[in-house]
Amino acid sequence: MNERIKELALQAEFSERDLLIQGDNFQRFAELIVQECLRQSKEVVIPITADAIESKIKEHFGIES
Questions:
Q1: Rounded to two decimals, what is the model's pTM?
Q2: Which listed residue, of 20, 22, 24, 54, carries a Cα 20 to 30 Å from 10's Cα?
Q3: Which among 33, 25, 31 is positioned nearest to 61, based on CA atoms?
Q4: Domain boundaries, the chain
Q5: Which residues contact 1 (CB under 8 A, 6 or more apart)?
């Protein structure tokens, strides 16, 4: 499993045991989220700014903070 994905899973309070049992699923889930973020970033209209991309991804996933 990618170390960054492992760090994030632990930060989300999954246990080491969860990661051992479901490691491949966590990896795939994270990859799917990244792919979705990349798709959303391509849909940002001009002007393309970091803030515009951030807003688009937050809106798509329903994140308010």
A1: 0.67
A2: 54
A3: 33
A4: 3-61
A5: 19, 23, 24, 26, 27
- Distance between CA 23 and CA 5 in Å, rounded? 10
Rounded Cα gap, residues 7 and 29, in angstroms: 14
Residue 49 backbone phi and psi in degrees, to 5: -130, 165
1 within 8 A of 28, measured Cβ to Cβ: no
Which token pair is 36?
A: 């979705």
